[in-house]
Amino acid sequence: MQKLRAWWFTREQWQRWAMMMAAIIILIFAVERWQRWEQTGKALGQKTWERGGVIQLDENNDGVIDQEKRPGKLPGEFTIRKDANFDGMFDIRYRQMTNGIATDLETIKESAPRR
Fold it and tell me: Taking the CA atoms of the chain, what radius of gyration do you get in angstroms?
């Protein structure tokens, strides 16, 4: 039994190994889940960012997002938040279908993110 003990890990070594493996798995998961905003378009006076299907649009190039488009629950459906008067606050939220019909229009007051 003593010879088996010589090459086998002790309890502390097993715990240390298990903690290191858990930390590595968590690190890999965090790196895979971490996504950065990527600037996808830069037209005249307008910038577009995208991350995970969410599109943010800065229409007047002032650094404040003016429109945000998120995928909806159904295919071809989007939830849109829009800053109608360019004051840095989202004013309108609605759902838009692929055929261009806007539904569930509501007025809101939410601060818009900055870029």
Answer: 24
